[in-house]
Amino acid sequence: MANAFALDRIAPGYTDKFQRAFARYQANRELKKAYRATLNELQELSNRELSDLGMHRSNLRSIAYQAVYHAG
């Protein structure tokens, strides 16, 4: 902690920038993790199940991407 305090005194705002960047990194990792989980679940469906849902196997990546990154 002493190093963070000293760094904050030398370069004010530097630690805040680092914390924001690290928070964005963590949020992006969580989104990527959710994308992979969604894609894996969709890939486990059979062609018939996908057809029943109106999906095709070639569209799974885009469907998973939209579900995770454009949700809400």
Automatic annotation (TrEMBL):
Give any Pfam family that matches: YjiS-like
Which InterPro entries does the record cross-reference, listed alphabetically? YjiS-like
Domain of life per record = Bacteria
Q: Where is the YjiS-like domain?
A: 34-60
What's the protein called, per UniProt?
DUF1127 domain-containing protein
Name the species this protein comes from. Answer: Harenicola maris
